[in-house]
Each structure stands twice: as C-alpha cells, then as structure tokens.
Specification:
The complex is a heterodimer of chains A (250) and B (279). Chain A has 8 helices and no strands. With 250 residues, chain A is mostly helical. The N and C termini of chain B lie far apart (43 Å). Classes of the chains: A mainly alpha (250), B alpha/beta (279). The complex binds adenosine-5'-triphosphate (ATP) and magnesium ion.
Chain lengths: 250, 279
C-alpha cells in the first residue's frame, strides 16, 4: 500500500549510511590532506567573488527597501541594526549556502557522477582506495571549513552594502556602524555560524550521494546534478527554519 | 608478496546460486560456476545480459543478494570492504568504460595499484617506476607516460587499462568487453595483447565479450614467445591447449551454457547459435 514511499525511504536510508560512513572516516586514516586542501581552494577561493557580490547587493537592497518603511516611523537611523540582524541571522547563511549549493554542490555531483559512469569509482575500490575516504571526506571537510568563512565574508559585505545606502540617506558612519554592531548578540552570531556548518554538511553529502549513485550514462550525470542542487536547496530552507526555532526558544 | 599463478587445481572464483537484483530487476539469476587457476573463460551474452555485473560480483564490487561468491577460496559474500581490499589486490580488471582516472597521467594510473594497495609489500619508487615502464612496454605505450588519458585514442586507453590490470601480476584477470567500440584492426591488437598476457604468465582470465571472434581467438590461438606472434593451436596435435578455454553464455541474467567451443557450436539452441554464427 505504501509502495510509493519505498523508493524515497530507501534513498534516505542510503544517504544516512553514506553520512555515517563519512563521519566514521573523518576520524580514521588514511587522510587525503592534499585532496582536502584542493577542495578548499576550489570551493573557498573559487566562490569568493560570488559571495562578495551576493552579500554586498543583498545588504544594499535590504537597506534600500527598509529605509522607506522605517521612514514612516521616523526610525531611519535604525537601518544598521535591521541590516546586520537579518544578514547575520538569516540571509547571509542562507544566500551563501544557496550559492554554494548551486556552484559546488552541482560541481561535486557532476564530478563524482562522471567518475561513477566511467567506472572510476569502481576502479578505486578495485585498486585499493575507499572512495568515501578519498572523495567524500575531503569534500565534506573542505565545505565544513570554508562555508562558515564565506558566510562571515558575505555578512560583512552585506553590512557594507547597507552602509553605502545609509550614507545616501544622510546617516552618519558612526551611527550606522554602532547600531549595526551593538544590535548583535551572542545568540545571533551563534545561529549565524551554526547554520553554515549544518548547510555545509548537507551540501557536500547530498552532492556526493547523488554523484555516487548516478546510473545511466551522461544523461544520468545531468540528472544527478540537478537533483543534488534541488534537494540541497530545499534542505537549506527547511533547516534554517528549524535552527531558527531552536534559537527563538532559547 | 607474490601474486603469481596459483596451483592449477585450485578454484579461483566460484559462484553458488548467486542472485543480484537492482530495484526489482534481476541482473544475475542463480548463477553457478567454478573457475580454476590458469583457466581461460569466455563470457558471451547480449547487451544487458549481466556480463558486467557478473565480473563485478566476482571481485566484490557488487554485492550478491543471495547465494555465495568465493574468491581464492574465501567467502566474500558478506565480507567488509576493508577485508576485501586484500583479496582484490590479487585480481586485475579491465573495465568496460575504461575506469582510468582522468585527473592522473598514464604513469600515475598504471602505478596506482602499486602505490595504493596496502597489502602489497612496499616497493621503492624506482621499483614501481620499473614495473610501470615494463607494463607499458608490454602494451607498447612506453612513450605516453606523461600524457593524460583524455589525450589518447580509444584503443590506446584500452591498452593503458590492460597495463594497469596486469602491472601487479595478479593470479586472475577480468576483462570486461575489451573490444567494444573499437574498429576491427584495433580490436585484434587488443585481443593479441590479451592472449599474449595470458600465455606469458599463465594467469586465469575471464573475458566478457559479445564478439564471438574474440572467444575464438582466446580458444584457438597461443602466443609464441619466439616469433612474438599469435599461432593457431593445432587441433589434433599435442596436448590440445585450446581445450582449456571454456565458454559461458548469459541470457537475461541466467547462465544458459557452460562448456567447450565444440559443445557450444554443436548446440542447436537458437539463442546460442546467434553467437556462433560468424565463423
Ligand atoms: N548500477 C545499476 N543499477 C541498476 N541497474 C543496473 C546497474 N548495473 C547494471 N544494471 C542492470 O543489470 C542488467 C545487466 O547489466 P550489465 O551491465 O551486466 O550488462 P552487460 O551484459 O554487461 O551488457 P553490455 O554488453 O551492454 O555491457 C541490465 O539490465 C542493467 O540495466
Ligand atoms: Mg557490460
């Protein structure tokens, strides 16, 4: 009767198994440090321009839109606080993660997918390396280190973007930066850093999972890539909601 | 550790009623056979009949859903991946899709098993280089050491794959459709290499193919080390070397025939005769 549920449940189970094996392997040798640094370079340095641009313009757009609403209450001076709170808590982590899901989640899925369909993953297993250790763990570690850093950069660029707009509204730099800075509490920074860490795990594992379970030739690689981006994007939105709930109740 | 040919009466691979399923589709259906050391086997079958799955199951790359798989006398059916690495290091495999690492050079590809198989006795870097060079010389590709697989032709990639499969001198070599997608001349070069490799080391060879000519070549030709060429085995002459080659035919996951070439050719079964036709 519940046959339609069988496939997704099976997939979720496989995904959890992959995550578990990756987690075990993080603490067990051999470690492919070179691969991890290479991935950090690809994901981190490679995504820097995207994150800088996204962050800056998100902050600017927010300041621009909010200023009108705030003007109704004569509270334009509070613009720094609004921009920094929404960015650090929510928009910075989520938008950065969505960008990285699009840019690197897809990259991971298509790279591993091509390796799967050309039997390179089988070849690894046949020739003495564990693909989880060699392919999944470096991508997981690299994303988990790099995504929080990218988020911090995006947050900062966003506040800077808001600042440029604030100047045009006649707010003094002093006023902007002090409201932006003072409004941040430990709680905000905490969830602002916990989220990218959770997103990093989702993006890298989902990318690896869809890549490594690719079947059906080149067409399958395209399918795996799309699925990886869609699924990780949805999870990002869902997870941000739940982490937000936890922090609201704290 | 020496991975040389095993005693000729030992069984290298054994399948007992092995079944493999993919979400309801049965890729292998109760397959049973046993293959001895030094033996040559040709695995024929239409596209999608399960040849690749059978080869992968034989070295534990694909798990069996039921039945038992023995590799070098050890039951690998429920064996953990870490344990399998040791047994797999005694098997060489040429993948149908190549399986060459495209981020590594030809040299690094061929050296990969030597450097990564942990159960292998540590070799010095110069010994590894020498083995790699020798394996590439064997397939006549010594000059491509520093090239990447993407820079080679299809036939050359296949030859690099053969070099990587045999560089460790395994007791069992699996060839998955070595001539698929090649022109007849290149296909013959590849087959000549496979026969040569079999006859220089006397390792067991299991070759999947859908070209009957490939099987014929394996069964009726031997490499002559003096002339450096392939030679037809005389049918009524000495020990009938050709008869050690056994044929297996797969159909939709089932092993529908196992026997010698004359037995295969004598069979009246319409599916079997489809393979035998081109003489
Ligand atoms: N990873 C997989 N997931 C799902 N189905 C698979 C998988 N691998 C193989 N199959 C299915 O198993 C069956 C046997 O496939 P296999 O690749 O062994 O055929 P083959 O005999 O090697 O064919 P070919 O001559 O085309 O290489 C096919 O129906 C195939 O669709
Ligand atoms: Mg095949």
């Amino acid at each position: 009767m519940f046959d339609f549920l069988k496939a997704p449940v099976q997939r979720f189970q496989d995904f959890v198994v992959l995550g578990g094996r990756a987690a075990v392997n993080v603490f067990r040798g051999p470690h492919y440090t070179d691969d991890t640094f290479l991935q950090m370079d690809i994901i981190g340095v490679g995504s820097l321009p995207v994150c800088v641009m996204t962050g800056f313009f998100t902050g600017a757009v927010m300041a621009q839109q909010m200023s009108r609403a705030l003007a109704t209450y004569g509270a334009t001076g509070q613009i720094g606080q609004i921009v920094s709170l929404t960015l650090v808590r929510e928009l910075g982590p989520v938008l950065t993660a969505l960008m990285i899901a699009g840019r690197n989640g897809s990259g991971i899925a298509s790279e591993l997918g091509s390796m799967k369909v050309t039997e390179q993953i089988d070849a690894m297993r046949a020739l003495g390396t564990d693909p989880i250790q060699k392919l999944v763990v470096p991508r997981l570690l690299a994303t988990a280190v790099v995504l929080p850093l990218l988020t911090i950069i995006a947050d900062f660029m966003g506040i800077l973007g808001g600042f440029v707009i604030a100047l045009t509204l006649g707010i003094t730099p002093d006023q902007y930066w002090s409201t932006a800075w003072r409004s941040l509490e430990f709680n905000d920074v905490g969830q602002g850093l916990l989220k990218p860490f959770a997103f990093a795990i989702v993006i890298s594992l989902v990318g690896c999972y869809y890549g490594m379970s690719t079947t059906g030739g080149t067409q399958g690689v395209g399918r795996a890539t799309t699925q990886a981006v869609v699924v990780s994007s949805i999870w990002i939105i869902v997870i941000t909601f739940f982490i937000g709930r936890i922090f609201v109740n704290l | 550790m020496s991975n040389g040919p095993e005693q000729s009466d030992t069984v290298v691979v054994q399948f007992d009623q092995v079944t493999v399923r993919f979400d309801g589709d049965t890729a292998l259906d109760r397959v049973s056979f046993a293959m001895r050391a030094g033996e040559t086997r040709v695995l024929l079958g239409a596209a999608g009949s399960g040849k690749t799955v059978l080869l992968k199951t034989a070295m534990g790359l694909q798990a069996a859903d039921s039945g038992r798989v023995l590799l070098f006398g050890r039951d690998i059916t429920r064996m953990a991946e870490r344990e399998l690495f040791e047994l797999r290091s005694r098997v060489g495999i040429l993948f149908q899709e190549g399986g060459l690492f495209d981020s590594l050079t030809v040299e690094e590809n061929v050296a990969y098993p030597l450097r990564n198989q942990k159960t292998r006795q540590a070799q010095s870097e110069s010994e590894t280089e020498e083995s790699v060079r020798e394996a590439l010389r064997f397939v006549e590709l010594e000059h491509t050491l520093q090239q990447f697989p993407s820079e080679l032709s299809g036939g050359m990639r296949r030859r690099v794959g053969i070099a990587r499969a045999v560089v460790t001198e395994p007791g069992l070599v699996l060839y998955d459709s070595p001539t698929a997608g090649l022109d007849p001349i290149t296909a013959n070069t590849i087959m000549a290499l496979i026969v040569k490799e079999r006859d220089t080391r006397n390792a067991a060879a299991l070759m999947a193919t859908h070209r009957y000519q490939d099987g014929q070549l394996m069964a009726n030709f031997r490499y002559n080390p003096h002339s450096g060429e392939l030679q037809r085995v005389s049918v009524n002459g000495d020990g009938r070397e050709g008869s050690t080659t056994r044929f297996m035919v797969m159909r939709e996951g089932k092993l529908v025939f196992e026997g010698t070439q004359p037995e295969l050719e004598a069979s009246g079964d319409p599916y079997l005769s489809k393979f035998v036709l081109k003489r």
